[in-house]
Amino acid sequence: MSLAYEEVFEGEAIQRSAPGRRHEVVCARLHELIRASVADLHSTRLMPPRAQIQVTRLTALCPDLALLTSVSGKLWLAAEIVNSEDHRNDTVIKKQIYEDLKVPRLWMIDPRYDNVEVYHAMPYGLALKGIFAGHEVLTETLLPEFQLVVAELFAPEKNLS
Fold first, then answer.
1. Residue 115: inside a domain, yes or no?
2. Assigned domain for 13 exists
3. Are 91 and 82 in contact (CB under 8 A)?
4. Is residue 37 within 8 Å of 45, Cβ to Cβ?
5. Less CB within 10 Å around the terminal CB: N or C of the chain?
6. Domain with 138 in it
7. Ranges of H-type helices in the chain
8. Strand (E) positions, 28-74?
9. Would you state the pLDDT for residue 1?
């Protein structure tokens, strides 16, 4: 069962509601794939889902998926699975924070539309590099082992009965 959690935006504590079942299934699948892709990368550390990351003195975020550099602990890839009940926090507020921090990679994963928006940090902000859906394959040059058919991320759960 998911739990509610807290993030801090510029010193203001924001209570976030517990993610729904589909959100958690997508998050678990993503973590499983990324974990396999970073297993041999000693330069990268995968954090648990929604682990609180102190990104500035006054801001602590809980990305659904976070990859940090092992040496500096700096966030270099954040993935946010959009929650339809409070999507503004992810799609507007946190996206702006990631842009201000110049996080090299941001994935906005949207179960409402079964797609993934991929952003790269550029000198003047985040640039949308692509929107992936259906049978398109999501890859990441900084994770050579990673490959994901987007439809598999959003596939219905299999009944175990």
1. yes
2. yes
3. yes
4. no
5. C
6. 5-153
7. 21-38, 87-88, 95-101, 150-153
8. 44-46, 53-56, 59-61, 65-69
9. 58
Q: How large is the average pLDDT for residues 150-157?
A: 94
Report the side by side order of strands in the sheet with 12-16: 12-16, 5-9, 59-61, 53-56
What pTM value is reported for the model?
0.94
Question: What are the pLDDT digits (tens) for 128-141?
Answer: 999 999 999 999 99
Tokens of 151: 């439809």
CATH of residue 115: 3.90.1570.10
- Structurally, how many domains does the chain consist of? 1
Point out the least confidently predicted range of 1-10, 18-27, 109-118: 1-10
Mean pLDDT for 23-49 is 94
The amino acid that residue 41 corresponds to is L
Helix (H/G/I), strand (E/B), else coil: 129: strand
Going by C-alpha positions, the residue among 46, 49, 76 that lies closest to residue 141 is: 76
Among positive and negative, which fits the CA dihedral 61, 86, 10, 76? positive
* 161, part of any domain: no
Confidence at 17, pLDDT banded by 50, 70, 90: confident
